[in-house]
Amino acid sequence: MIAQLPTAAPAAQYPDFLDALRASGFRGQLSADYATRTVLATDNSIYQRLPQAAVFPQDTDDVARIAALMAEPRFGQIKLTPRGGGTGTNGQSLTDGIVVDLSRHMNHILEINVQERWVRVQAGVVKDQLNAALKPHGLFFAPELSTSNRATVGGMINTDASGQGSCTYGKTRDHVLALHTVLLGGERLHTQALSDEQLESACAQPGRIGEVYRTARQIQETQADLIESVFPKLNRCLTGYDLAHLRDEQGRFNLNSVLCGAEGSLGYMVEAKLNVLPIPKYSVLVNVRYSSFMDALRDANALLAHKPLSIETVDSKVLMLAMKDIVWHSVAEYFPADAERPTLGINLVEFSGDEATEVNARVAAFVNHLQADTRIERLGHTLAEGAEAVTRVYTMRKRSVGLLGNVEGEIRPQPFVEDTAVPPERLADYIAEFRALLDSHGLAYGMFGHVDAGVLHVRPALDMKDPAQAALVKPISDAVAELTQRYGGLLWGEHGKGLRSEYVPAFFGELYPALQALKGAFDPHNQLNPGKICTPPDATEGLLKVNEVTLRGDLDRQIDERVWQSFGTAVHCNGNGACYNFDPNDAMCPSWKATRERQHSPKGRASLIREWLRLQGAANIDVLEAAKGKAAWITGLPTRLRNNLARSRGQADFSHEVYDAMASCLACKSCAGQCPIKVNVPEFRSRFLELYHGRYQRPLRDYLIGSLEFSIPYMAYAPGLYNAVMGSKWVSGLLERHVGMLDSPLLHRYNLQSTLSRCNVAVASVPALRELCDEQRQRSVVLVQDAFTRYFETPLLAALIQLVHQLGYRVFLAPYSANGKPLQVQGFLGAFAKAAVRNATQLKALADCGVPLVGLDPAMTLVYRQEYQKVPGLEGSPSVLLPQEWLIDTLPETTGAMQTASFRLMAHCTEKTNVPASTSQWEKVFARMGLKLVTEATGCCGMSGTYGHETRNQQTSRTIFEQSWATKLDKPGEALATGYSCRSQVKRQADKQLRHPLEVVLERLLAR
């Protein structure tokens, strides 16, 4: 049923190289497993190149060991490519050699000099990580990227990255003071601006360092006129091998202009010294709306006259996608809808400074211009004032890259000509021709970009699985390369050259041999990221071409169309890398944050599933039919046991590597809510586990977890006995050693019956609800029980009952029925479907009586509106409300004074990412009670259902908890938690008992 791991060995030299690297004292990790190679075969581009292996250096010494070994004649054919965040859109870090990932270990901020305003960082530091460390000092690293929460500084330098605000702040190169680079052979090059005397000393050095300085100086001195004529006079100028800036404005010689943007083709950049700037104290974003995207582009030149910090533009396609995204609830107020005059383009115009009065005066003058200038039709404008509001709008703009990948169907915008740059005054005319080109091919497209810099991101929509559509990549690239040059611009204005390097010789013309000479001085045997930007003079291999490199679509089309569509939440991942978010206080993918292993991320898991599905098809295995035709548990047991035995003896099966990645997922569903493409790992994880365990026997642990909801009501008849047994050291040790579970929760011995009697609670039944009159129905509520709050946190359920009763509502308690979430998480999909049908049938009958259904635990409650809806026949299952969703429509507005005491909400991951309005609803509920509630920015707590109780997850669970929740518990203001698993984890890891927000609401209600 499961395809085997391909047996074709990598090129013969690579295993020998890895062995030699181990023997040299290399301290980092070396990985040649198929899972790691598969995950690193893609980035944010249309390409896919399977590396032979990946190495993860521990420090600069490790990098030097790699470089020294490469220079040995026996390893002269070895190819290596450095990799940071893997966010490139042009395959810059993709290779069929070895990936050198500098992000896993070399990610430390080494020094912050506040007085002189500079920092020293390692290559793997993420931009937002750096800015978070600088913020307390009032400083920031300026180049602004849409991928700033996962892009590494090393990657930014290697692509000379820029983005929003570049007309004010420049590119990455403009902020580089010094670089530390390891050259081929292991020499360590330290580059910064040099006087002529210092340059003479550098050129006189022996070895490769002296050679590169002499070569660069000769080019600068002998090719000055040609450099002046070739390099465009643009804000974005040119990324990589920038000969035009070898001499700075002070006349100093600086090799960093060559290294910035070199895409790792000259050496391994390991450390950088960067200048940083004061954070503007006040900002205002003017959001101007247009009825035409071309109007937005044509208006940009007039707007530039007011000298804003930046002008960003977004077209209607991106706006429509944003409206369906988690981000929209926070920015909708700035883009009012008008059915008669829809917004088809916007310009985001930012003004900033240290004095609010001065900034507001500039904004006022700008607004006067908008109102007086009638040359362009504008639909209106709004102001986002202050850093918090500006950040919210820019968050929407930053998600544009990912959002464009989330259109319906298989024809989706693709990045391959999406960062062209032309003089800003020619942008509108250029784009008109660009659009005509795409229209001639009948292609749709999405656009956004930096109109102040003349850069627009244009993504033609193609189904890359269709060979005819994939074949358009080359002719469109050719045409756009010619078009940009005709307009005095560049094909590569922002995102580097990568696999588009075939256009370099034509662009540089007579100057191209100078680039080759420079490459030859650094990398004479073409081993460093070969095929990118240029080749050494005597290279036997040329530049890579866009139509000669494997495309993702080439492999994806090998997957059966039915399978592709069925697993759409995995295979549509476009590699944008939003799941690599560094921020520990963001919920996105806690397993990635804890392990720093990319296969343990949504992007990694989606890549593995894509490849696994492809291999199933290659082995003539129909996974859809396999899911339908599972053997009965007993009859299939002998086969599963035989396969388990073969696995224990080392039988290769790529499925085991996929299983390891899926088993490490917490199933928190943050990816489903936060990923712009809506990659839903828990969904395809459960389907994979079902198929995998159709071939390999499950551990006993899975059965205990899956049956918990069914067994615990019976255990509750004798809670004392159950607790005594489960609490004994002998049973606990047995469970930990032989079952893989520990810290099992104990039953609460609270007498719920007393609360039911006191609050006159009735069992919800259709006859009982139908006897109610309309007025009584409007004052009634059905509470839907879940196993965890019913049996392990019974006082909380009692508090909810009392709260509803206190508000004057009649409480009905739905008969307990297993929700099925543990079954779904573990991949018992057949059993889950049966539980869902049984439960949904009961709930639908109750809901049809006109009384609202309210659940308590968010993880369990949201199953009704998410997983249930995907079970055949349950598409119209009743939606069960969260407590705050019911309370917000129930509590009257209050006019009383707010209490001085404040509370902090630490929300459940699933709840806040899949129902983004849920946290603000709690804030409003508290405000109506005269209480102040602030939502705390937190990541995952590390428990996520039963994940934290599994022995194999203990270290990861604790690491996740310590990364975020542990740092927030002792802050001022009482911390409240909505999730059962979150409260359990805090009790277990910090020995603190957190209350649920509804307990505070009840307490306040009773005190009135």
Q: What does this protein structure show overall?
A:
The chain is α/β, with parallel strands linked by helices and 1008 residues long. It has 6 domains: 13-103, 2-Layer Sandwich (Uridine Diphospho-n-acetylenolpyruvylglucosamine Reductase, domain 2); 289-406, Alpha-Beta Plaits; 411-493, Alpha-Beta Plaits (2-Layer Sandwich); 564-697, no CATH class; 702-881, no CATH class; 902-1007, Rossmann fold (3-Layer(aba) Sandwich). 43% of the residues lie in helices and 12% in strands. It is built from 48 helices and 26 strands. Strands 12, 13, 14, 15, 16, 17, 18 and 19 form an 8-stranded antiparallel β-sheet that branches. The protein has a 5-stranded antiparallel β-sheet with strand order 5-6-10-8-9. The chain has a 4-stranded mixed β-sheet with strand order 1-2-4-3, covered by helices on one side. A hairpin with a 5-residue loop joins strand 8 and strand 9 (188-192). Helix 8 packs antiparallel against helix 20 (512-522), helix 25 (602-618) packs antiparallel against helix 28 (654-663) and helix 38 crosses helix 48. The longest helix has 19 residues, at 829-847. The chain starts with 12 loop residues before the first helix and ends with a helix. Mean pLDDT is 92; it is low at 1-10.
